[in-house]
Amino acid sequence: MSNEELLRRHDAGGRARVAEAAAGLAAVPSLHVAVLTCMDCRIDEHALFGLEPGDVHVLRNAGGVVTDDVVRSLAISQRKLGTREVLIVAHTRCGMSTFTDDEFTEELAQHAGQVPSWRPQAFDDPATNVRRGMTRLRTDPFLPAEMQVRGFVLDIETFTLTEATTPA
Ligand SMILES: [Zn+2]
Q1: pLDDT tens figures, 94-138
Q2: Ligand 1 mean position to 16 CA, how many Å?
Q3: Ligand 1 centroid – CA 23 distance (Å)
Q4: How far is the centre of ligand 1, averaged over its atoms, from the C-alpha of 26 (Å)?
Q5: What is the spatial order of strands in the sheet that 85-91 belongs to?
């Protein structure tokens, strides 16, 4: 099982490397930024933005979607752990563009005999997903009004970033 491989790598140097990197770090991110991105295994947000342990909070989920749980984590990040800005990064060729909400919900219902209480929140256009997320964060009553939010689409082949701007 691959879980066993992870535990082997933890013992074979992973634990020691992380302990050394985290030595002396505070729980408050030094750059006061929270990054929301997709769980896609090709994205290394620390390498992409030149980050070190202790610099930022990282939130990842399928698509880099602003879900209720992302709002929960950002409320805590912003109000209890000192972040002031949010960077949303969606990407091209995302798995979230390979199905629709209705298709996947039906698939789950077939499997489980019930529909989930949540929506998959699939999307065709990553920029649309980013704009929707920025709008939700800027209008959520539980997040600070002064919180700064920027959103980008990452090209998953060239790893260039294109800013997704919202209408003024
Ligand atoms: Zn993705």
Answers
A1: 999 999 999 999 999 999 999 999 999 999 999 999 999 999 999
A2: 30
A3: 32
A4: 30
A5: 56-61, 33-38, 85-91, 148-154, 161-163
Please state the domain count of the chain: 1
Question: What is the whole-number distance in angstroms between the Cα of residue 95 and the centre of ligand 1?
Answer: 5
CATH code for the domain in which residue 67 is found: 3.40.1050.10
Domain that holds residue 36: 27-163
Give me the phi and psi of 90, to 5 degrees please: -95, 180
